[in-house]
Automatic annotation (TrEMBL):
Keywords attached to this entry: Dioxygenase, Iron, Metal-binding, Oxidoreductase, Vitamin C, Zinc, Zinc-finger
Chain ranges of the Fe2OG dioxygenase domain: 231-330
A Pfam family hit: zf-MYND
Cofactor(s) in the UniProt record: L-ascorbate
GO biological process: cellular response to hypoxia
Chain spans, region Disordered: 65-86
InterPro entries: HIF_prolyl_hydroxylases, Oxoglu/Fe-dep_dioxygenase_dom, Pro_4_hyd_alph, Pro_4_hyd_alph_FE2OG_OXY, Znf_MYND
SMART domains with a match to the protein in the record: P4Hc (SM00702)
Name of the protein: hypoxia-inducible factor-proline dioxygenase
Molecular functions per Gene Ontology: ferrous iron binding; hypoxia-inducible factor-proline dioxygenase activity; L-ascorbic acid binding; zinc ion binding
Taxonomic lineage of the native organism: Eukaryota, Metazoa, Ecdysozoa, Arthropoda, Chelicerata
């Protein structure tokens, strides 16, 4: 920096005269467009209340459009003999903090989604309990409604653009006989707390709330009341990229790994099964004369038992197909794993979480 660009502080006065205070001057090391020098350490300390805000900010952000002060602009600057008082500084800081708090509060209101109606959760509980006990499968259309499902769709698309989050879906045997690919999806595990996942979080907690209510009413829940379910996996966001990608017939939990209920929420706009394929086909063991063929349309929820009672497959998808899957775990089955030879270690999986149902006044 040239000497003419330096501003010297002497007994509270500002000056650009180099010959006046150059000897023994103390230089501020901040990244400032105008260099600050002081005639003594005491004067630097005295000027610090007015100088620190500019100095600290300058250290955090490099200067990209530096222009030396000329005489005209210096005349418009605050006189060094009248430094900003502590009250003025405090007022400015308070205003900034208040505005920042208001902005955060406003943003939080936009991002905070109120819980669903208690009556809606009760209605869903009744339908899920009846269908799971009667058929082992439950299908709910328009689960969260148009507005919420479209918000989830937008979040899913945004997440998929972050390709680093996804990995290829894995199975024990990657390919079957003849080199046939077992599954062709790409997956990402979500907690719902990731940035821009507020609506996905709402979906997860809604599922938590429904399942928690189902298993809590042991006397009227039928088979669902036999299980102790307090945890689940993270949500698995799966994308089938099209081009005939599929998942061959399989069982989610063939080896007592703890998964008891599979919940799949579909996030696909304008899906046509005849044109786009990608149907979920379920072959319920308790109803061997029936096959459930489910189109993966937007805002459709499918629930079924995760064990050998429900082999299922995903037919070849001809365009990109999204689904969010959550598995609910039976604590008793997880505890049994220590007694079973070759039992799975799902109990120790980093993908497991405690359920987080919505709380109401009567719960």
């Amino acid at each position: 920096m040239k000497t003419s660009d330096a501003l010297y502080i002497h007994h509270g006065f500002a000056s650009s005269r180099h010959d006046e205070f150059s000897s023994g001057a103390i230089r501020c090391t901040g990244n400032l467009p105008v260099e600050k020098r002081y005639c003594s350490k005491e004067h630097q300390v005295k000027h610090w209340p007015a100088h620190k805000h500019v100095c600290k900010a300058s250290r955090q952000q490099p200067i990209t459009d530096f222009k030396p002060l000329n005489n005209e602009t210096r005349g418009n600057e605050r006189n060094g003999s009248d430094p900003m008082s502590e009250d003025e500084l405090r007022s400015i800081v308070n205003d900034l903090c208040n505005n920042h708090t208001q902005w955060i509060d406003s943003l939080s209101k936009q991002l905070t989604i109120p819980p669903p109606d208690d009556s809606w959760l009760e209605q869903m509980k009744v339908q899920v309990v009846y269908d799971m006990n009667s058929f082992g499968v439950c299908v709910v259309d328009n689960f969260l409604g148009s507005d919420r499902s479209n918000e989830i769709y937008a979040e899913v698309v945004r997440l998929y653009r972050q390709r680093s989050l996804f990995q290829r879906g894995q199975v024990v045997n990657e390919a079957g006989s003849g080199g046939v690919m077992v599954r062709g999806d790409h997956i990402a595990w979500l907690e719902g707390t990731e940035p821009y996942c507020n609506n996905i979080r709402f979906l997860i907690r809604s599922l938590d709330s429904i399942v928690a209510r189902c298993v809590a009413h042991t006397n009227s829940a039928g088979e669902m009341g036999l299980y102790r379910i307090t945890q689940r996996t993270k949500a698995m966001l799966a994308c089938y990229p099209g081009g005939g990608s599929r998942y061959v017939k399989h069982v989610d939990n063939p080896n007592f790994d703890g998964r008891k209920i599979t919940c799949i929420y579909y996030v696909n706009k304008d899906w046509n099964g005849e044109r786009d394929g990608g149907l979920l086909r379920i072959f319920p063991e308790n109803h061997r004369n029936h096959v459930a063929s489910v189109e993966p349309i937007l805002d459709r929820l499918v629930m079924f038992w995760s064990d050998r009672r429900n082999p299922h497959e995903v037919l070849p998808a001809q365009k990109m197909r999204f689904a969010i899957t959550v598995w609910y775990l039976d604590d008793n089955e997880i505890a049994m794993q220590t007694c079973l030879p070759g039992g799975s270690t799902v109990a120790q999986s980093s993908k497991n979480q405690m359920m987080a149902p919505f709380q109401y006044g009567n719960t």
